[in-house]
Queue: 2 jobs
Job 1
Amino acid sequence: MDFPIFHADLIGNRAIIAVIATLHVLINHGLAVGMMPLIAAIEWHGHRTSDRRWDQLGYKLLFCAFLVTTTVGALTGVGIWLSASLINPYAIGSLIRVFFWAWFTEWLVFITEVCLILAYFLTWKKWTAGAAKTRHIRLGAALGLFSWITMAIIVSILGFMMDPGNWLSEHTLFAGFTNPIYLPQLAFRTPLALTMAGVVASFLAIFFIARADPFRAQALRALNLWTLFWAPFTLAGGWWYMSVVPETMRERVGTALLTLQFESWQSDFYAIVIGTVAFIYLIAQISVLRPTWVPRAAYLVALLAITWLTGHFERVREFVRKPYVIGQYMYANGIRADDYPLLKRDGVIAHSTYTYPLSDAEKAGLAASGHEQVQRGKDVFMITCSRCHTGSGVNSVITQFERLFGSGAWDRKLLADYTTTMHDLRTYMPPFPGTQDELLALSDYLIQLRTTGAAVPGAQQAGVGANPPAATVAARPRPQSAPMTERRP
Ligand code: HEC
């Protein structure tokens, strides 16, 4: 790699964050926020009815939830930080500045949650009777509450990224926290998590309780009653949430659901979504009325269905807030809206943390090999397009241009003209931030990339070092103004 900015050219930078974060949300909702209250309720019910079988079911569910949340759940949680910091350090930097105390509190709550789940799990078989059992059930309830509080804090940050609301003028944590999307989104995610837990638990219960055991029908009926109870709240919360999503974001739902290529399938897609929701509901309904009628596979399908729906919902939420990563404030390329006039004047390369002006010797080396312009174009691509596009992998910029301009020869002017106006037509793309000169360099780079597959052959020999040693950096003239390092929250 001859360029120090992080870039995954095969699956794309977006996909790295998306895979890790979506997995994390699925585990968080289905196995923590929704599952812990369900387990505590099962334990409580078993205690009240003095029926040990409920207790055993609760313990087995907790065992699974404990295993997955403390391994994959915890790792993906850290993975979100790691991937977001690599891929969009400016965005995560701004979020930390705004939400510092909220995140600090969330960290304390999370540590408490970890202690509680350890205590809840490890004392289950010890605190089995009388006051100790009551204490244990309370521990479960507290665990459920703390899991929810962590989500309640994080959801505010998610809402903030879509629509920061008053924060844009007030710049306080309070204004950011109480953004317009916050409560509706929380009102949706809370029952969604509880519904998911019911679906997950039903699927697990068929493995935990033998088919011949009459308790199986009893347990499935109860678990699906739980699912059915929360389902209407999920729909109502979803409705409220949809109603606060700004109109400009709704316009992007078509591409968000299905990508540009399959956008026209939108109404079929809605039909599939409604059918899937109806299927989950139907399985839950039959399980309540006639648990023995429902085949095992149906629970698996219901589980896959709700997993897919939730995962896809995350994709859409992430997509519609484009071109911004933080609504109205910072574009998805990590550049603040306020910095645009400056970058249009000086160019993006001059102010980039990840690249540096070439020395005269380096320029001469590149010019001699005829690659100077292309190397600059690559820098421009990395800064302005690579958060969302690859060069040759998923959502490759070359494929996108080929769909527009066909497979014939490309004209640099044509590419440059399109790029100047790309944000007008495709509103999820940020406007191009650089100079006219950089625009042409980008076009030259894309043309070269398309024809040779590799953009700057021999550039490294020509002296374009990545991460130059500190001494070289200091010796090299830096651009005078450095607004990118003075980002305010
Ligand atoms: C915020 C993310 C983002 C950024 C930044 C971005 N794009 Fe895109 N671009 C997209 C998405 C998403 C699509 C549509 C992908 C799909 O659904 O197939 C797209 C589509 C395109 C298309 C096809 C559009 C059409 O009308 O058919 C072109 C060409 C394109 N991008 C070029 C660029 C160039 C050049 C840059 C950098 C200067 C850039 N994009 C920056 C997200 C982005």
Note: Confidence is low (pLDDT under 50) at residues 457-489.
Job 2
Amino acid sequence: MQRLLKPLLCLALLGALHGTRVAAAELQLELPAGTRTWTSAALLAHPLAEDIRIPADVAYQRAMHYRAVPLAALLEGVAAGDHLQAVALDGFAAELAAAPLLARQGARAWLAVEDPAQPWPALAKGKPSAGPFYLVWQHPEAAQIGPEQWPFQVARIRLLEPLAQRFPALLPAADASTEVQAGFAQFQKNCLACHRLNGAGDSQFGPDLNIPHNPTEYLGAGFLAQYIRNPQSLRRWPQGRMPGFSQSVISDSQLEQLIGYLRHMAGRKAEL
Ligand code: HEC
């Protein structure tokens, strides 16, 4: 849902990819055991593949049916403490803790596989579908799975070092309060897929949130909270691409923690 408008940026490119990939979609898994490539045909024929129903699909915003494989079955050698990244065709990178992906109870992660013979609907008029591969969840509420954890148009899932190790410039001070640490967790979960901070992160979709200036330096706290809830309520223009975050995704107290983390990081700017 969050990125529905993003392909506008590179419509031509995606259009080209979409045209070819329905015939020959491949998912690359870079895991402890090595790199393995799955074709959609092999995944559709996977012994654990099932027809599943997703009542409140994030990308399509309605109930959907998919042919899907339990993601845990594909994550050979991955441990609960590991960190994974799902990379989409357009470069969007979702950071994913392995534990909820491996869980077999409560929230359950499935890799939905688009059948080239029966393509999924377009995400919007003139746009490609959520395929070829899309991470969907059953009972997402059981593990507080947010919309950024439903990456679609996935091309690659890879094991990476935890974020804190890859990007120490994102870390709060070692003696920061638990509130600031909790805000850092919210930042990773909700913001890092699109924003860098201190130049650190894998996405460049939105502006860096600390350099040259941190939004807490130029937006009064009330306005920053308002912006995160509904960007267009502060600055309106047709091409705004940042989604709003409702209370069901980030509660009021989590939003306070998130802003606390940003404020804290204003005092920890990376030297450029
Ligand atoms: C799907 C991508 C995406 C996500 C997720 C996202 N943003 Fe953004 N954000 C953007 C883009 C793109 C812009 C630039 C304005 C626009 O196009 O909407 C932006 C702009 C901003 C700005 C305004 C900067 C300015 O001065 O104009 C702030 C502040 C901000 N984001 C904070 C956040 C925070 C905090 C989160 C996490 C809760 C977040 N964003 C999540 C894409 C995203």
Note: The radius of gyration is 19 Å.
